Amino acid sequence: xxxxxxxxxxxxGIPPAMYYVLGALLVEMxxxxxxxxxxxxxxxxxxxFRWLExxxxxxxxxLAVSSFVASADPAVKKNVLLSGGIHRFWLGVIMSALxxxxxxxxxxxxxxxxxxxVLEHKSSHYNxxxxxxxxxxxxxxxxxxxxxRFIVDVLNTNQKILxxxxxxxxLLTAIILMIKVLRKKDI
Length: 187
What we know:
This protein is mainly α and 187 residues long. Helices cover 80% and strands 0% of the residues. The radius of gyration is 18 Å and the shape is globular.
């Protein structure tokens, strides 16, 4: 998600990247809230998350292929999937919704915080927790957006090489995710 935000910032500018981040952030915060109040239901629907994991792999592979195409064809200046016709906010919503990895991640952290009595089963605690997650995630995305732009501006990086590097990062991410999915039986 961070790499996609960075690539959008580099190829399309900061405002589209910010829309993308806001869409992705909205879904992540909804996922965290739902996971806090409906842990039992979510844990019972493991097949749904298994399908979402495979869909995530396909989307990440498509992003890699799109980046490789952009690096190989001089006529292509942007990643077609990230810079296509869909508004970046909705792109962020869709990509975040298809990323089930965040659910077990936040389950783990929430469980640790519940067992340590740092987080209590109260709405006020949930709201503060989710606001903290949202703030941290937003700042993390900003680091990638502005860091990526800085690297491109300072080093005057060739777009072809940049697309190739980003494609490799997407491909490596897809391979790692596929290995993790294939090695486990349950979420």
